[in-house]
Amino acid sequence: MTLEIITPDKEIFKGETSLVQLPGIDGLFEILNNHAPLVAALSKGKVKIHDENNEAKFFDITGGVVEVVNNKILVLAE
To answer: What is the pTM of this model?
Structure first.
């Protein structure tokens, strides 16, 4: 899957991932390969990803939205 995490100031991450865990407004949720299309609001918390080397990376956000379409994930974070 391709993931982009973008803030108003800069691009935080762009690359391939096998797992993305996000802090939704109703709790944590994960996105895996071939996930159904989705648009969701995000709350304050950590975004966890597994990169192409299957290493976990974490990014702090204070909110935002996520869009998932055709194995492309776009996180517009605050």
So the answer is: 0.92
